[in-house]
Design goal:
2 domains, 24% helix
């Protein structure tokens, strides 16, 4: 398998920003929606997505750079085991540098120990069962490789756990449920939707990317919103329409509200891992108009009875 850095076309010491830039370019070029029926493009799309997921995870990237995990994110077996050569317990061996046959099991030159084991355990030595009839079994057929996908989810859909549709590399579409506590980088496993193999299909691993919103901000399971209100609404109080991820609702603004006052809308946030929804926190922002008549009024009023709003700051 190709090196993850070469898969994305970046240098080994590339910054996270360079990796993201390279991934966005390749993902746009190779996305299944733009390459329907093109198996080669779908396979490359899966590989670059998998490379991106590993190289943007600081821990996984460090382990990959140290050679501890492979391009699939799986631990590398020591001494080259699991790379297609003889496996421990299979009776296999390799040729050492001095020409002797070195056995992985005994750590020395190979010898036929069947008579010794037969005498000790009273069983016949069959190479198909390993030394002395220990009953080692051959490895089960390997499943197909997992396929990596990336799914962009609208902010409101992530908050409300609305179902999403993902397109497989084969062109097949599947509906998926977002799990409670979903966040940017959450992975959803679709069993049996990966590549085919002798032992069955692998899985599809879908990485969720929650899109940012133009005026909502996430804070844990809560959502924050800066809400502009007029001067008369702030002074006199009012009922105003407020956007939420579930649609607009009415909010009561108390009389004499100042900019920075925070009001709470219960249960209008994200669904947490325990299934309970957070709140929407609304910060009032008083919009003072550029009105000559208002200016004249304030000049004549002279701030009577307003006190010092900065007294708490000691000035």
């Amino acid at each position: 398998m190709a090196d993850l850095y070469s898969t994305l076309g970046v240098a080994r010491g590339a910054s996270e920003a360079d990796i993201k830039k390279a991934y966005r370019k390749l993902a746009k070029e190779l996305h299944p929606d733009r390459n329907k029926g093109n198996a080669s493009a779908s396979d490359r799309f899966s590989k670059v997505t998998q490379a991106y997921d590993i190289l943007t995870d600081k821990d996984k990237r460090a382990r990959y750079d140290r050679g501890e995990i492979d391009e699939d994110g799986n631990p590398r077996a020591p001494f080259g085991f699991g790379t297609g050569g003889p496996q421990p317990g299979s009776g296999g061996y390799s040729r050492s540098a001095n020409g002797a046959d070195f056995d992985f099991e005994t750590g020395g030159e190979t010898a036929d120990l069947s008579d010794l084991f037969e005498g000790l355990f009273g069983g016949s030595s069959r190479r198909s069962r390993g030394f002395g009839g220990f009953g080692r079994r051959s490895a089960p057929p390997q499943r197909g490789a997992d396929m990596a996908y990336r799914l962009d989810v609208p902010f409101e859909d992530a908050a409300g756990l609305k179902g999403q549709r993902v397109t497989m590399s084969s062109g097949k579409t599947l509906d998926i449920k977002l799990p409670p506590g979903v966040d940017d980088g959450t992975k959803v496993r679709l069993a049996g939707q990966g590549q085919a193999g002798p032992g069955g299909h692998g899985d599809a691993i879908v990485t969720i990317a929650v899109k940012p919103h133009r005026f909502f901000r996430r804070e844990g399971d809560n959502i924050r919103l800066d809400l502009p209100i007029s001067l008369d609404e702030a002074v006199l109080g009012a009922k105003v329409r407020v956007p939420t991820v579930d649609g607009p609702v009415m909010l009561s603004v108390p009389k004499g509200s100042s900019s920075g006052k925070v009001l709470r809308l219960k249960g209008k946030g994200f669904t947490g891992k325990k299934g309970q929804r957070g709140d929407q926190l609304v910060t009032l922002m008083v919009d003072v108009p550029d009105d000559p008549e208002l200016a004249r009024f304030l000049e004549s009023w002279g701030g009577k009875g307003k006190g010092n709003p900065r007294a708490s700051l000691g000035v």
